[in-house]
Amino acid sequence: MSREQAAAVMDRQARACAALAAPLYADLLTRAAVDVRAGGPCAEVIADHLDAPPDAAVPLRLLGGVHALVLTGRAPELARWYPSAGGSYRPDDAADCWAAFRAVVANDPGTLRGWLRRPPQTNEVGRANLLLAGLLYALDAVGDRPVRLIELGASAGLNLRADRFRVEASGFACGPADSPVRLPDAWRGGGPDWLRDAAARHPELTVVERLGCDPTPLDPGSDDGSLALRAYVWPEHRARAERLAGALHLARRVPARVEPVGAAELLAGLEPQPGTLTVVWHSVMRQYVPAPEWARVDAELDRLAAAGRSDAPVAHLLFEPDLTDRGRFQLRARIGDGPQRLLAEAHPHGLPAWTP
Description:
By secondary structure, the chain is of the alpha/beta class.
């Protein structure tokens, strides 16, 4: 990309931030795009990434790096506008906030270039709302039994602990009442009847294996991994930050394994196991996998589905953008080698969900 193309990507991300209730980031990226066009500090920091494709999310990498500096106390002059650091932001603050942001970029380019080399990994905890709904649907289809939970693109594996989260909606709740992760207002209208009935029939989930994969997994128990996850949560999204804090707490208590391999490689070694339900799950990650690699994933998923038996069933759950309308995010489920079924739609971060 040229500087103009990179600036256009920032403008698009700014509009997305505005649409997702993040005016601080929307204003900063709008001004950062101008700075890139003018060859300012933002242009210098991202210079090695001008040829990155738009889905590399270079603007979010830059924002994440600056947010990390704020969270670690290395950008106190900017922290006053970051709610995640105790500050507050209003549109009237835009000029002063931008001046402080630009100064941080100019003063610490080395740190930010390091963040630009790592992919954004939010490990969005709210998407467990859809995973749990899909799990209950699958158990209703095959009968109550222990679950092997397999996640593709698992990042730090936080959602591999989804059975320990508490989901709440009007007149509906499931999951441990004392969970440090609460997903309130999870469903518009309190959730569909099939979900309420399934939750009543399966009041407790037994997960006997928690396995994920990611090309660059994060360790939620390490300082670096925890900081990366916190830095990629947008500073105005306090509820997301609270969910993340609870999930990090759970991760220290509930073991899970995330292998540093691609999705197809992980699936190639997977077989159904008698007496268990094998569930393969992924959320908002397909767009980051090259088409040839995803063709291998599809082949492995078909192989695994065909290998399922009545005593060793297999389910595939996915929460991904609709391929015909990228603005819609849908939960779909496939039991064994049967047809894929649309179960729900939801906000990209998983809360709330609704029946389409």
